[in-house]
Design brief:
Undecaprenyl pyrophosphate synthetase, 274 residues, single chain, alpha/beta
Length: 274
């Protein structure tokens, strides 16, 4: 492992700790360019402690901070977090209000950390339904970090993968109906340009916490060839150690994008001799 990677975590992880042991296993030349995370398990975390669900969400904010800072130190170019889906509006009103309050609080408190770590903040989703107090904090965070050149932190708010795809289809259909485009000439690139994630590469690694085996309407188009890593760890307990474990597992996998791995030359020779 590069000494530069160890240096980035100097004074952050203890010598001889499990964090250092895992960090030493990471190949800095094979890091995923884009990590997306479905942050799940806040409610169960709180329930197991006989606390209200909002306590789990508040604890989850600490996990966000630790994960974002670790990704920035590793030099991960893009990190996308699934914070609030369109389906989450179905939750009890008080819980939704608490989530919005925590979001405002997080943005106000973490803006300095984002700037110090050279992190650029952006969002995806339909912001129109969010409270004006939330959208003001979002816009402020964007402005304050727009010149940063490090990790791009994207937070999905009021986001739905299906709605995103439908919107892109509607835009292309309108162009075709207006005579501005031949449907037969539409490409994947044309479609991707109309997604919320325009300008972002597809995720290399999708992490889901809490052990659930589903993608929950998150980046449905974009994760077509993402490596999926599921951990039993509940989101409030997720820390840099868990991120290291996910990256190590990612680096062990062979990404073929639907192709067949070429047979090794020695294997072909042996097969021909039979």
């Amino acid at each position: 492992m590069s000494n530069n990677l160890l240096k980035e975590f100097e004074n952050v992880i203890a010598s001889g700790s499990k964090d250092e042991f895992l960090l030493r296993q990471i190949d800095p030349d094979k890091l995923p360019a884009h990590i997306a995370i479905i942050m799940d398990g806040n409610g169960r975390w709180a329930s197991r402690r006989n606390q209200p669900r909002v306590a789990g969400h508040r604890a989850g904010a600490a996990a966000v901070r630790a994960t974002v800072e670790a990704a920035a130190r590793l030099g991960i170019p893009y990190l996308t977090l699934y914070a609030f889906s369109t389906e989450n509006w179905k939750r009890p009103r008080l819980e939704v209000e608490a989530l919005m309050g925590l979001l405002r609080e997080f943005l106000r408190k973490e803006i300095r950390s984002l700037k110090e770590n050279n992190i650029r903040f952006r969002t995806i989703g339909r912001e129109q339904r969010l409270e004006s107090t939330v959208t003001r904090e979002i816009e402020h965070a964007r402005r304050e970090t727009e010149s940063n050149t490090g990790t791009v932190l994207t937070v999905a708010l009021n986001y739905s993968g299906r709605s995103e795809i439908i919107q892109a289809c509607r835009e292309l259909a309108a162009e075709c109906a207006a005579g501005g485009r031949d449907p037969a000439e539409i490409t994947e690139y044309d479609f991707e340009r109309r997604l919320f994630t325009e300008g972002l590469p597809d995720p290399d690694l999708l992490i889901r916490t809490s052990g659930e085996m589903r993608v929950s309407n998150f980046l449905l188009w974009q994760i077509a060839y993402s490596e999926i890593y599921v951990t039993e760890t509940l989101w409030p307990d997720f820390r840099q150690l868990n991120l290291f474990e996910a990256i190590i597992e990612f680096q062990k996998r062979e990404r073929r994008y639907g192709a067949v791995k070429p047979a090794h030359k020695s294997s072909l020779v042996a097969a021909n001799m039979k």
